[in-house]
Amino acid sequence: MKHLPLVLLLLIGMTGFTQEHPSTQTTRSLLNGWDNIRGEWLFQCMEALSKQAPVPDRTFPEDLTPFELLSLAPSAFRNSFQAHLQRIPNPDRLHQLMSGLVNASFCQTHSGRSYGDPHIITYDNTSYSFQTVGEFVLSKVGATFEIQARQKPQRDDFSLNSALAIRFFNDTVAYYADDVPDGSNRSLWYNGQALVLEGRTYYLPCGGTVRLVGKDYIISGPMGEKIVFDVRGSGSRRFVNVTVSIPSCMETNISGLLGNGNGDRFDEFQSNNRMASNALNGFSGMNSDPFMAMTQQAEQLYQMQLTKDYAEAFRVTRATTLFTYRPGLNTDFYTDRTFPRIIRTFHEIPNSQRDAARNRCLQMGVSEAEMNGCIFDVHYLDLPPNPSPNVAPNTQGVILNKLNHPVVNSNTVAPSKFPQNNAQPIDKKPIESLPENKQPLPEKSPSPSPWPESKPQTSPLPEKKPTPKPAAPVAKPNPAPAPPKPPVKSPTKGKN
Question: Helices then strands (H, E): number in the chain?
Protein backbone atom coordinates (compact mmCIF):
# COMPACT_ATOMS: atom_id res chain seq x y z
CA MET A 1 0.00 0.00 0.00
CA LYS A 2 2.94 2.31 0.54
CA HIS A 3 3.43 2.47 -3.25
CA LEU A 4 -0.19 3.47 -3.94
CA PRO A 5 0.48 7.24 -4.09
CA LEU A 6 3.14 6.68 -6.75
CA VAL A 7 0.78 4.52 -8.80
CA LEU A 8 -1.94 7.15 -8.54
CA LEU A 9 0.47 9.83 -9.66
CA LEU A 10 1.44 7.74 -12.68
CA LEU A 11 -2.20 7.13 -13.57
CA ILE A 12 -2.99 10.83 -13.21
CA GLY A 13 -0.02 11.69 -15.40
CA MET A 14 -1.07 9.22 -18.07
CA THR A 15 -4.64 10.48 -17.96
CA GLY A 16 -3.47 14.04 -18.37
CA PHE A 17 -1.23 13.03 -21.27
CA THR A 18 -4.08 11.40 -23.21
CA GLN A 19 -6.83 13.80 -22.21
CA GLU A 20 -8.66 15.15 -25.22
CA HIS A 21 -9.49 18.78 -25.88
CA PRO A 22 -12.80 19.92 -24.29
CA SER A 23 -14.24 20.70 -27.75
CA THR A 24 -13.36 17.36 -29.33
CA GLN A 25 -16.67 15.63 -28.73
CA THR A 26 -18.64 18.64 -30.00
CA THR A 27 -16.50 18.70 -33.15
CA ARG A 28 -17.10 15.00 -33.67
CA SER A 29 -20.84 15.33 -33.08
CA LEU A 30 -21.16 18.14 -35.62
CA LEU A 31 -19.42 16.08 -38.31
CA ASN A 32 -21.57 13.05 -37.51
CA GLY A 33 -24.65 15.25 -37.65
CA TRP A 34 -23.78 16.16 -41.23
CA ASP A 35 -23.05 12.56 -42.25
CA ASN A 36 -22.67 9.87 -39.63
CA ILE A 37 -20.44 7.72 -41.88
CA ARG A 38 -18.42 10.18 -43.95
CA GLY A 39 -18.29 12.73 -41.14
CA GLU A 40 -16.98 10.15 -38.68
CA TRP A 41 -14.28 9.11 -41.17
CA LEU A 42 -13.33 12.77 -41.65
CA PHE A 43 -12.97 13.25 -37.91
CA GLN A 44 -10.83 10.11 -37.59
CA CYS A 45 -8.66 11.30 -40.49
CA MET A 46 -7.85 14.62 -38.85
CA GLU A 47 -7.29 12.89 -35.53
CA ALA A 48 -4.83 10.48 -37.16
CA LEU A 49 -2.97 13.26 -39.01
CA SER A 50 -2.70 15.28 -35.81
CA LYS A 51 -0.80 12.30 -34.36
CA GLN A 52 1.25 11.67 -37.53
CA ALA A 53 -0.55 8.32 -37.94
CA PRO A 54 -2.11 6.69 -41.04
CA VAL A 55 -5.74 7.58 -41.67
CA PRO A 56 -8.38 4.81 -41.42
CA ASP A 57 -9.73 3.04 -44.50
CA ARG A 58 -12.57 4.81 -46.26
CA THR A 59 -16.05 3.70 -45.23
CA PHE A 60 -17.80 5.08 -48.32
CA PRO A 61 -17.48 4.34 -52.07
CA GLU A 62 -16.12 7.72 -53.27
CA ASP A 63 -12.34 7.99 -53.81
CA LEU A 64 -12.05 11.42 -52.18
CA THR A 65 -9.46 13.10 -50.02
CA PRO A 66 -10.52 14.76 -46.73
CA PHE A 67 -10.47 18.15 -48.48
CA GLU A 68 -12.53 16.93 -51.43
CA LEU A 69 -15.03 15.25 -49.14
CA LEU A 70 -15.57 18.31 -46.96
CA SER A 71 -15.81 20.60 -49.99
CA LEU A 72 -18.90 18.62 -51.09
CA ALA A 73 -20.68 19.30 -47.80
CA PRO A 74 -23.39 22.01 -47.94
CA SER A 75 -22.00 25.51 -47.49
CA ALA A 76 -24.44 26.13 -44.61
CA PHE A 77 -22.91 23.25 -42.68
CA ARG A 78 -19.36 24.37 -43.46
CA ASN A 79 -20.18 27.90 -42.31
CA SER A 80 -21.56 26.71 -38.99
CA PHE A 81 -18.69 24.25 -38.55
CA GLN A 82 -16.17 27.01 -39.30
CA ALA A 83 -17.85 29.27 -36.71
CA HIS A 84 -17.61 26.47 -34.12
CA LEU A 85 -13.88 26.03 -34.78
CA GLN A 86 -13.24 29.77 -34.57
CA ARG A 87 -14.80 29.91 -31.10
CA ILE A 88 -12.48 27.24 -29.66
CA PRO A 89 -9.91 28.73 -27.26
CA ASN A 90 -6.37 27.33 -27.42
CA PRO A 91 -7.08 24.84 -30.21
CA ASP A 92 -4.97 21.68 -30.23
CA ARG A 93 -3.37 20.19 -33.36
CA LEU A 94 -6.56 18.34 -34.28
CA HIS A 95 -8.63 21.52 -34.33
CA GLN A 96 -5.90 23.46 -36.11
CA LEU A 97 -6.00 20.91 -38.92
CA MET A 98 -9.80 21.01 -38.94
CA SER A 99 -9.75 24.81 -39.23
CA GLY A 100 -7.26 24.66 -42.09
CA LEU A 101 -9.40 22.11 -43.88
CA VAL A 102 -12.70 24.00 -43.63
CA ASN A 103 -11.03 27.32 -44.49
CA ALA A 104 -9.47 25.75 -47.58
CA SER A 105 -12.91 24.59 -48.73
CA PHE A 106 -13.94 28.26 -49.09
CA CYS A 107 -10.84 29.93 -50.51
CA GLN A 108 -9.33 30.21 -53.99
CA THR A 109 -6.20 28.37 -55.08
CA HIS A 110 -2.65 29.43 -55.94
CA SER A 111 -1.19 27.68 -58.98
CA GLY A 112 2.45 27.53 -59.99
CA ARG A 113 4.26 25.61 -62.69
CA SER A 114 7.65 24.31 -63.80
CA TYR A 115 7.68 23.36 -67.48
CA GLY A 116 9.87 23.17 -70.55
CA ASP A 117 13.60 23.75 -70.25
CA PRO A 118 12.49 24.72 -67.55
CA HIS A 119 10.49 27.88 -66.95
CA ILE A 120 8.87 28.76 -63.64
CA ILE A 121 5.52 30.46 -63.07
CA THR A 122 5.10 31.39 -59.42
CA TYR A 123 1.92 31.39 -57.35
CA ASP A 124 1.82 35.19 -57.82
CA ASN A 125 2.19 34.87 -61.62
CA THR A 126 5.82 35.95 -61.92
CA SER A 127 7.61 33.98 -64.64
CA TYR A 128 11.29 33.31 -65.19
CA SER A 129 13.68 30.83 -66.80
CA PHE A 130 15.67 28.54 -64.54
CA GLN A 131 18.20 26.58 -66.60
CA THR A 132 20.11 25.06 -63.70
CA VAL A 133 21.27 21.54 -62.84
CA GLY A 134 20.57 19.84 -59.53
CA GLU A 135 17.70 19.21 -57.13
CA PHE A 136 15.62 22.11 -55.82
CA VAL A 137 12.65 22.88 -53.58
CA LEU A 138 9.80 23.99 -55.82
CA SER A 139 7.48 24.68 -52.92
CA LYS A 140 7.30 24.03 -49.19
CA VAL A 141 4.28 24.84 -47.01
CA GLY A 142 4.90 24.58 -43.29
CA ALA A 143 5.76 21.06 -42.19
CA THR A 144 3.00 19.23 -44.06
CA PHE A 145 3.74 19.68 -47.78
CA GLU A 146 6.82 19.92 -50.00
CA ILE A 147 7.67 19.27 -53.65
CA GLN A 148 11.17 19.01 -55.11
CA ALA A 149 12.42 18.88 -58.71
CA ARG A 150 15.53 17.31 -60.22
CA GLN A 151 16.80 19.23 -63.24
CA LYS A 152 19.11 17.36 -65.62
CA PRO A 153 21.28 18.97 -68.33
CA GLN A 154 20.48 18.95 -72.03
CA ARG A 155 23.53 20.13 -74.01
CA ASP A 156 25.46 22.98 -72.34
CA ASP A 157 22.67 25.50 -72.16
CA PHE A 158 19.41 23.87 -71.03
CA SER A 159 18.06 21.49 -68.43
CA LEU A 160 14.80 19.56 -68.05
CA ASN A 161 12.83 18.20 -65.09
CA SER A 162 13.87 14.54 -64.98
CA ALA A 163 12.30 13.70 -61.60
CA LEU A 164 9.84 15.12 -59.07
CA ALA A 165 9.15 14.18 -55.45
CA ILE A 166 6.26 15.22 -53.19
CA ARG A 167 5.82 14.85 -49.44
CA PHE A 168 2.46 15.02 -47.65
CA PHE A 169 2.94 14.53 -43.90
CA ASN A 170 4.86 11.19 -43.83
CA ASP A 171 4.07 10.10 -47.40
CA THR A 172 6.42 10.64 -50.34
CA VAL A 173 5.39 10.16 -53.99
CA ALA A 174 8.04 10.50 -56.70
CA TYR A 175 8.19 10.26 -60.48
CA TYR A 176 11.43 9.44 -62.35
CA ALA A 177 11.43 10.16 -66.07
CA ASP A 178 14.88 8.55 -66.09
CA ASP A 179 17.44 7.33 -63.55
CA VAL A 180 14.82 5.12 -61.89
CA PRO A 181 16.31 4.07 -58.53
CA ASP A 182 16.18 0.31 -59.22
CA GLY A 183 17.06 0.59 -62.91
CA SER A 184 13.62 -0.62 -64.04
CA ASN A 185 11.00 1.11 -66.16
CA ARG A 186 8.76 1.68 -63.11
CA SER A 187 8.70 5.46 -62.95
CA LEU A 188 6.16 6.10 -60.16
CA TRP A 189 7.36 5.47 -56.60
CA TYR A 190 5.87 5.65 -53.12
CA ASN A 191 8.03 5.84 -49.97
CA GLY A 192 11.04 4.32 -51.73
CA GLN A 193 9.22 1.53 -53.57
CA ALA A 194 7.83 1.32 -57.10
CA LEU A 195 4.09 1.82 -57.53
CA VAL A 196 2.08 0.73 -60.58
CA LEU A 197 -1.33 2.24 -61.28
CA GLU A 198 -3.55 0.23 -63.58
CA GLY A 199 -6.97 1.65 -62.97
CA ARG A 200 -8.45 2.57 -59.62
CA THR A 201 -7.23 5.42 -57.47
CA TYR A 202 -4.43 4.60 -55.03
CA TYR A 203 -5.03 5.79 -51.47
CA LEU A 204 -2.10 7.29 -49.55
CA PRO A 205 -1.92 6.68 -45.79
CA CYS A 206 -2.10 10.45 -45.22
CA GLY A 207 -5.54 10.58 -46.87
CA GLY A 208 -4.25 11.76 -50.26
CA THR A 209 -4.80 9.99 -53.58
CA VAL A 210 -2.85 9.15 -56.75
CA ARG A 211 -4.72 8.89 -60.06
CA LEU A 212 -3.76 8.43 -63.69
CA VAL A 213 -5.98 10.48 -66.02
CA GLY A 214 -4.95 10.10 -69.63
CA LYS A 215 -1.21 10.75 -69.59
CA ASP A 216 -1.29 12.89 -66.45
CA TYR A 217 -0.63 11.70 -62.91
CA ILE A 218 -2.84 13.58 -60.45
CA ILE A 219 -1.60 13.57 -56.86
CA SER A 220 -4.04 15.12 -54.39
CA GLY A 221 -3.10 15.95 -50.82
CA PRO A 222 -5.36 15.70 -47.79
CA MET A 223 -5.48 19.48 -47.18
CA GLY A 224 -6.39 20.61 -50.70
CA GLU A 225 -3.02 20.36 -52.47
CA LYS A 226 -3.13 19.13 -56.06
CA ILE A 227 -0.16 18.30 -58.29
CA VAL A 228 -0.24 17.29 -61.95
CA PHE A 229 2.71 15.40 -63.48
CA ASP A 230 2.68 15.81 -67.27
CA VAL A 231 5.21 13.39 -68.78
CA ARG A 232 6.75 14.53 -72.06
CA GLY A 233 9.24 13.27 -74.66
CA SER A 234 10.43 9.69 -75.02
CA GLY A 235 13.49 7.51 -74.67
CA SER A 236 16.53 9.25 -73.25
CA ARG A 237 14.83 12.64 -73.64
CA ARG A 238 11.85 12.09 -71.37
CA PHE A 239 11.06 14.84 -68.92
CA VAL A 240 8.12 15.93 -66.80
CA ASN A 241 6.28 19.21 -66.40
CA VAL A 242 4.50 19.91 -63.15
CA THR A 243 1.60 22.11 -62.05
CA VAL A 244 1.17 22.74 -58.32
CA SER A 245 -2.04 24.10 -56.78
CA ILE A 246 -2.56 24.90 -53.10
CA PRO A 247 -5.37 26.71 -51.26
CA SER A 248 -4.56 30.42 -51.02
CA CYS A 249 -5.53 30.42 -47.33
CA MET A 250 -2.99 27.80 -46.31
CA GLU A 251 -0.25 28.61 -43.83
CA THR A 252 1.67 31.78 -44.62
CA ASN A 253 5.00 29.96 -44.31
CA ILE A 254 5.35 29.25 -48.05
CA SER A 255 8.78 29.17 -49.71
CA GLY A 256 10.55 27.73 -52.76
CA LEU A 257 11.06 28.47 -56.45
CA LEU A 258 7.28 28.88 -56.90
CA GLY A 259 7.36 31.91 -54.58
CA ASN A 260 5.67 32.88 -51.34
CA GLY A 261 2.08 33.19 -52.58
CA ASN A 262 1.45 36.51 -50.82
CA GLY A 263 -0.09 38.24 -53.84
CA ASP A 264 2.94 40.47 -54.51
CA ARG A 265 4.68 39.84 -57.83
CA PHE A 266 7.65 42.02 -56.95
CA ASP A 267 9.05 40.19 -53.92
CA GLU A 268 9.31 36.64 -55.27
CA PHE A 269 13.08 36.49 -54.93
CA GLN A 270 13.32 37.20 -51.24
CA SER A 271 14.83 34.41 -49.21
CA ASN A 272 15.30 34.30 -45.43
CA ASN A 273 13.93 37.87 -45.11
CA ARG A 274 16.50 39.31 -47.51
CA MET A 275 16.88 39.63 -51.24
CA ALA A 276 18.75 36.72 -52.79
CA SER A 277 20.30 39.26 -55.17
CA ASN A 278 19.92 43.00 -55.63
CA ALA A 279 19.81 42.45 -59.39
CA LEU A 280 16.47 40.63 -58.96
CA ASN A 281 14.84 43.44 -56.97
CA GLY A 282 11.45 44.24 -58.52
CA PHE A 283 11.68 41.65 -61.31
CA SER A 284 8.07 40.83 -62.23
CA GLY A 285 8.44 38.14 -64.87
CA MET A 286 9.43 37.42 -68.44
CA ASN A 287 5.90 38.19 -69.67
CA SER A 288 5.90 41.70 -68.19
CA ASP A 289 6.42 44.94 -70.12
CA PRO A 290 9.67 45.77 -68.26
CA PHE A 291 11.10 42.43 -69.37
CA MET A 292 10.24 43.06 -73.01
CA ALA A 293 11.83 46.50 -72.80
CA MET A 294 15.13 45.36 -71.27
CA THR A 295 18.27 44.74 -73.29
CA GLN A 296 19.86 41.42 -74.02
CA GLN A 297 22.69 42.26 -71.61
CA ALA A 298 20.21 43.02 -68.82
CA GLU A 299 18.41 39.73 -69.42
CA GLN A 300 21.70 37.86 -69.26
CA LEU A 301 22.37 39.51 -65.90
CA TYR A 302 18.98 38.40 -64.59
CA GLN A 303 19.58 34.86 -65.82
CA MET A 304 23.02 34.71 -64.24
CA GLN A 305 21.70 35.90 -60.88
CA LEU A 306 18.88 33.35 -60.99
CA THR A 307 21.00 30.35 -61.93
CA LYS A 308 24.13 31.17 -59.93
CA ASP A 309 22.88 32.92 -56.77
CA TYR A 310 19.15 32.47 -56.27
CA ALA A 311 19.36 28.75 -57.04
CA GLU A 312 21.46 28.17 -53.93
CA ALA A 313 18.67 29.42 -51.65
CA PHE A 314 16.54 26.39 -52.54
CA ARG A 315 19.05 23.72 -53.52
CA VAL A 316 18.33 20.34 -51.90
CA THR A 317 20.87 18.81 -49.50
CA ARG A 318 21.54 15.23 -48.44
CA ALA A 319 19.56 15.90 -45.27
CA THR A 320 16.52 17.46 -46.98
CA THR A 321 16.15 15.41 -50.18
CA LEU A 322 12.94 13.51 -50.87
CA PHE A 323 14.39 11.42 -53.71
CA THR A 324 15.43 7.77 -53.70
CA TYR A 325 18.83 7.12 -55.28
CA ARG A 326 20.64 4.26 -56.88
CA PRO A 327 23.22 2.60 -54.59
CA GLY A 328 26.21 4.87 -54.02
CA LEU A 329 24.52 8.02 -55.33
CA ASN A 330 23.08 11.07 -53.57
CA THR A 331 21.98 14.60 -54.46
CA ASP A 332 25.60 15.66 -55.05
CA PHE A 333 25.73 13.38 -58.10
CA TYR A 334 23.00 15.46 -59.78
CA THR A 335 24.50 18.85 -58.84
CA ASP A 336 26.49 20.95 -61.31
CA ARG A 337 27.08 24.54 -60.22
CA THR A 338 28.91 25.40 -63.47
CA PHE A 339 25.68 25.09 -65.42
CA PRO A 340 24.56 26.65 -67.70
CA ARG A 341 27.82 27.09 -69.56
CA ILE A 342 26.04 29.18 -72.18
CA ILE A 343 23.23 31.55 -71.17
CA ARG A 344 20.56 31.83 -73.86
CA THR A 345 18.17 34.77 -73.81
CA PHE A 346 14.73 35.54 -75.19
CA HIS A 347 15.92 38.82 -76.69
CA GLU A 348 18.46 37.23 -79.03
CA ILE A 349 15.72 35.29 -80.88
CA PRO A 350 15.21 36.96 -84.31
CA ASN A 351 11.81 38.65 -84.66
CA SER A 352 10.74 36.48 -87.59
CA GLN A 353 11.46 33.27 -85.71
CA ARG A 354 9.88 34.69 -82.58
CA ASP A 355 6.66 35.39 -84.50
CA ALA A 356 6.63 31.92 -86.05
CA ALA A 357 7.08 30.32 -82.62
CA ARG A 358 4.34 32.52 -81.15
CA ASN A 359 1.87 31.41 -83.84
CA ARG A 360 2.70 27.79 -83.14
CA CYS A 361 2.16 28.32 -79.41
CA LEU A 362 -1.15 30.12 -79.99
CA GLN A 363 -2.42 27.31 -82.21
CA MET A 364 -1.77 24.83 -79.40
CA GLY A 365 -3.66 26.90 -76.83
CA VAL A 366 -0.77 28.32 -74.80
CA SER A 367 -1.83 31.20 -72.54
CA GLU A 368 -0.15 34.60 -72.45
CA ALA A 369 1.22 33.79 -68.98
CA GLU A 370 3.34 31.05 -70.57
CA MET A 371 3.82 32.55 -74.04
CA ASN A 372 7.42 33.76 -73.82
CA GLY A 373 8.51 30.53 -72.19
CA CYS A 374 6.82 28.59 -75.01
CA ILE A 375 8.54 30.73 -77.65
CA PHE A 376 11.85 30.14 -75.88
CA ASP A 377 11.33 26.34 -75.89
CA VAL A 378 10.14 26.13 -79.49
CA HIS A 379 13.06 28.19 -80.82
CA TYR A 380 15.96 26.73 -78.88
CA LEU A 381 14.99 23.08 -78.32
CA ASP A 382 12.09 22.61 -80.77
CA LEU A 383 9.88 21.50 -77.88
CA PRO A 384 6.24 21.18 -78.95
CA PRO A 385 4.01 23.71 -77.17
CA ASN A 386 2.61 22.25 -73.98
CA PRO A 387 -0.21 24.26 -72.38
CA SER A 388 -0.94 23.91 -68.70
CA PRO A 389 -3.12 20.77 -68.30
CA ASN A 390 -6.81 21.32 -67.70
CA VAL A 391 -7.81 18.47 -65.40
CA ALA A 392 -11.37 18.18 -64.15
CA PRO A 393 -11.66 18.17 -60.35
CA ASN A 394 -12.16 14.77 -58.76
CA THR A 395 -15.38 16.06 -57.19
CA GLN A 396 -16.99 16.88 -60.54
CA GLY A 397 -20.34 15.14 -60.83
CA VAL A 398 -20.01 13.44 -57.43
CA ILE A 399 -23.19 13.28 -55.31
CA LEU A 400 -22.90 12.10 -51.73
CA ASN A 401 -25.91 9.83 -51.45
CA LYS A 402 -26.93 8.83 -47.94
CA LEU A 403 -25.38 5.57 -46.78
CA ASN A 404 -27.28 3.17 -44.55
CA HIS A 405 -24.10 1.42 -43.41
CA PRO A 406 -20.33 1.76 -43.95
CA VAL A 407 -18.84 0.44 -47.20
CA VAL A 408 -15.40 -1.16 -47.18
CA ASN A 409 -13.12 0.77 -49.53
CA SER A 410 -9.33 0.44 -49.40
CA ASN A 411 -6.35 -0.33 -51.64
CA THR A 412 -6.96 -4.04 -51.19
CA VAL A 413 -10.75 -4.10 -50.92
CA ALA A 414 -12.92 -2.17 -53.36
CA PRO A 415 -16.50 -1.14 -52.57
CA SER A 416 -19.10 -3.46 -54.01
CA LYS A 417 -20.17 -0.94 -56.67
CA PHE A 418 -16.67 -1.03 -58.17
CA PRO A 419 -14.71 -4.01 -59.55
CA GLN A 420 -12.75 -5.86 -56.86
CA ASN A 421 -9.02 -5.29 -57.19
CA ASN A 422 -6.20 -3.11 -56.00
CA ALA A 423 -3.15 -1.03 -56.86
CA GLN A 424 -0.34 -1.11 -54.33
CA PRO A 425 3.40 -0.61 -53.90
CA ILE A 426 5.68 -3.27 -55.28
CA ASP A 427 7.36 -5.20 -52.52
CA LYS A 428 10.94 -6.33 -52.84
CA LYS A 429 10.14 -10.05 -52.88
CA PRO A 430 10.60 -11.39 -56.44
CA ILE A 431 7.91 -13.43 -58.13
CA GLU A 432 8.31 -16.02 -60.83
CA SER A 433 5.89 -14.53 -63.35
CA LEU A 434 2.78 -12.47 -63.74
CA PRO A 435 -0.59 -14.14 -64.20
CA GLU A 436 -1.26 -15.27 -67.75
CA ASN A 437 -2.35 -12.45 -70.10
CA LYS A 438 -1.69 -9.88 -67.34
CA GLN A 439 1.67 -8.49 -68.42
CA PRO A 440 2.03 -4.84 -67.32
CA LEU A 441 1.36 -2.16 -69.87
CA PRO A 442 4.07 0.45 -70.44
CA GLU A 443 3.41 3.62 -68.46
CA LYS A 444 3.71 5.70 -71.62
CA SER A 445 3.55 4.57 -75.23
CA PRO A 446 6.76 5.23 -77.18
CA SER A 447 6.64 7.99 -79.76
CA PRO A 448 8.53 8.00 -83.07
CA SER A 449 9.69 11.53 -82.31
CA PRO A 450 11.68 12.56 -79.21
CA TRP A 451 9.25 15.47 -78.76
CA PRO A 452 5.69 14.23 -79.47
CA GLU A 453 3.42 17.06 -80.54
CA SER A 454 0.84 18.19 -78.00
CA LYS A 455 -2.83 18.43 -78.84
CA PRO A 456 -4.95 21.50 -78.07
CA GLN A 457 -6.18 21.37 -74.49
CA THR A 458 -9.77 20.35 -73.84
CA SER A 459 -11.55 19.72 -70.59
CA PRO A 460 -11.56 15.95 -69.98
CA LEU A 461 -14.67 14.09 -68.99
CA PRO A 462 -14.99 13.10 -65.35
CA GLU A 463 -12.76 10.14 -64.61
CA LYS A 464 -14.43 6.75 -64.73
CA LYS A 465 -13.43 4.17 -62.17
CA PRO A 466 -11.65 1.41 -64.15
CA THR A 467 -10.32 -1.79 -62.68
CA PRO A 468 -6.92 -1.54 -60.96
CA LYS A 469 -4.36 -4.32 -61.02
CA PRO A 470 -1.97 -5.45 -58.31
CA ALA A 471 1.45 -3.96 -58.87
CA ALA A 472 3.98 -6.46 -60.17
CA PRO A 473 7.08 -6.64 -57.97
CA VAL A 474 10.40 -5.76 -59.48
CA ALA A 475 12.91 -8.50 -58.82
CA LYS A 476 16.38 -7.43 -57.75
CA PRO A 477 19.05 -8.22 -60.38
CA ASN A 478 20.94 -11.48 -59.73
CA PRO A 479 24.70 -11.87 -60.33
CA ALA A 480 23.95 -14.49 -62.99
CA PRO A 481 20.77 -15.08 -65.00
CA ALA A 482 18.55 -17.75 -63.48
CA PRO A 483 16.86 -20.40 -65.65
CA PRO A 484 13.28 -19.56 -66.56
CA LYS A 485 10.58 -20.86 -64.24
CA PRO A 486 7.04 -21.90 -65.18
CA PRO A 487 4.40 -19.18 -64.68
CA VAL A 488 2.49 -19.18 -61.43
CA LYS A 489 -1.10 -17.97 -61.53
CA SER A 490 -2.28 -15.62 -58.82
CA PRO A 491 -5.27 -16.81 -56.79
CA THR A 492 -8.60 -15.38 -57.80
CA LYS A 493 -9.98 -12.72 -55.44
CA GLY A 494 -13.67 -12.60 -54.79
CA LYS A 495 -15.83 -9.52 -54.46
CA ASN A 496 -16.90 -8.25 -51.10
Answer: 11, 17
Helix (H), strand (E) at residue 189: strand 188-190
Q: What angle do CA 125, 130, 136 make, to 5 degrees?
A: 95
Distances (CA, A) of 320 to 57, 135, 208, 270, 312: 30, 10, 22, 20, 14
Give the type of residue at 165.
A
Using the predicted structure, report yes or no on whether residue 274 has a pLDDT greater than 50: no
List residues bridging with 386 in a β-sheet.
none
pTM: 0.80
8 Å CB contact between 192 and 199: no
Residue 456 backbone dihedrals phi, psi, to 5 degrees: -55, 145
Which pLDDT tens digit goes with each residue over 403-424?
999 999 999 888 865 443 444 4
Q: What is the pLDDT of residues 210-254, one digit of tens each?
A: 999 888 999 999 999 999 999 988 776 789 999 999 999 876 789
Whole-angstrom Cα distance, residue 433 to residue 417? 30
Q: What is the pLDDT of residue 191?
A: 95
Element (H, E) at 24: helix 24-34
Residues 6+ apart with CB under 8 A from 179: 152, 162, 163, 326
- Which residue, among 309, 289, 316, 255, has the nearest Cα to 130 in the 3D structure? 309
Look at residue 43 in the predicted model and tell me its pLDDT. 98
| Parallel, antiparallel or unpaired: strands 109-115 and 216-220 | unpaired
Alpha-carbon gap, residue 409 to 416, rounded angstroms? 9
Q: What are the pLDDT digits (tens) for 42-61?
A: 999 999 999 999 999 999 99
CB-side exposure of 249: number of CA atoms within 13 Å? 11
Question: What's the length of the chain?
Answer: 496
Q: 480 CB contacts (<8 Å, ≥6 apart)? A: none
Whether the predicted pLDDT of 322 surpasses 50: yes
